[in-house]
Amino acid sequence: MKKMAMLALAASMMFACQSEKKENVEETPNEEIELLAEETLVDETSQTTEETSQEEIYTVRGQLVSMTEADETGQVTVTLNHEAIPDVMMAMQMDFKADAAVVAELAAEDKGTFEITKTEEGFLIKSATKLPAETELTLKK
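The structure corresponding to this sequence follows.
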């Protein structure tokens, strides 16, 4: 019987506390809730845009092995034998995408300095500068 009385008392106190909490809570108008939701959405969208616009660009030296003809979008595939990119990848031969205009001054066997960035499709050459033929590179054999 004592247990029942204690349970009833505990339940009454919990109910009373919940009622007091509800009385102390201010009602927020729907317009204010909608405005807060819009502000949050705008903040998250602008933060995502800022993060996206801060792409990481890597500078690497290498030797152009081959280059395809430009496709309908003006892009070419460039095969480079490049030096290591510290903390990103070791020296290797691999394909990069590039706008044809960016690599227009280069031909097979030319050495260059390339600024690249990673995209969803792979690595993209953002700029290319031809190096003198006698430039020594540390390439994978």
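Residues 57-131 form a domain with the OB fold (Dihydrolipoamide Acetyltransferase, E2P) fold (CATH 2.40.50.320).
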